[in-house]
Amino acid sequence: MTHVLERRYRRLLRAYPKDYRAAHGEELIGTLMEAARPEDRRPSPRETLHLLAGAFTVRVRASRAAGVPPWTDGLHLGALIVAMVTFAQLPVLPYFDYEIWTVLGIVLMVALVRGWVRVAALLAAFAAVWTSWPIVWGGFYVPGLDLGPMYGDLAPVAPYWVVAAASAVLAVRRAGAGRASGKARGWGATMPARSPWWLLLPLAGWALQLTQVPVYEPVWVVSRAGVEVVALLLVLAATLAARDGRWALAAAVYLLPGLVYLAENLLVTGVRGFLYWSVLTALVVASLIAARRVHTRA
């Protein structure tokens, strides 16, 4: 019976990172086994919750980028998420539209994942200016240049400008840090690289386009809202667990283009729209407040 309980604890322990299991796994298993009653056949719900909460805390703290301030890490993560969500909605499949624009988006996302913020800043600035062409230049059009979408409203171009602004801040900040330390590295990586698994997000968005279900259909609207609410709840939990504000800042960067959309469409937004944006805003504000409080206590 003891062996059965130990096997169950070890199965739950797999939620922890491998290096943590190697360093603390036996100690944690021993502590749990000592606390268990002899007649227990399986971990209690409380013990299971304790293990899973501990795994979440360890993983969140291990995911922090080393060698950069929390605000820099959060800004980088926010720019990456906005870029990926924006290009994931680009009409790519089943008909391959905007070939050059899609390639530009892929290079931009790879640059952000690899930490090449100077390259990303240039690409994002070009994307922001191009999509805003009708706003900047009015009806002036350059024949033969059909690289990507162009918009006459602020809401569609807001994500591109958010990514451009965040990338520019990161590029300038890292350039200054490199000069101050004598370790400026040209156009190479100037931010810690992130997991390549992030690139699955736009790929999943393009794959969903094969269903040819319009994005305004209730099934997609409700699904996206549910994913966003769950993700922002995890941001709040991660902020409290890691005791810093990088995830809260990333969430605020992600929300910013949405608030621009809300402001531009304020008069035509219904009750459900206001409820949706209110929930997202409340979760982001709660995360920012939590980040401020844990920072003050620290």
UniProtKB/TrEMBL annotation:
<keyword id="KW-0812">Transmembrane</keyword>
<keyword id="KW-0472">Membrane</keyword>
<feature type="transmembrane region" description="Helical">
    <location>
        <begin position="247"/>
        <end position="268"/>
    </location>
</feature>
<feature type="transmembrane region" description="Helical">
    <location>
        <begin position="274"/>
        <end position="291"/>
    </location>
</feature>
<feature type="transmembrane region" description="Helical">
    <location>
        <begin position="98"/>
        <end position="117"/>
    </location>
</feature>
<feature type="transmembrane region" description="Helical">
    <location>
        <begin position="122"/>
        <end position="142"/>
    </location>
</feature>
<feature type="transmembrane region" description="Helical">
    <location>
        <begin position="197"/>
        <end position="215"/>
    </location>
</feature>
<feature type="transmembrane region" description="Helical">
    <location>
        <begin position="74"/>
        <end position="92"/>
    </location>
</feature>
<keyword id="KW-1133">Transmembrane helix</keyword>
<protein>
    <recommendedName>
        <fullName>Integral membrane protein</fullName>
    </recommendedName>
</protein>
<feature type="transmembrane region" description="Helical">
    <location>
        <begin position="221"/>
        <end position="240"/>
    </location>
</feature>
<feature type="transmembrane region" description="Helical">
    <location>
        <begin position="154"/>
        <end position="176"/>
    </location>
</feature>
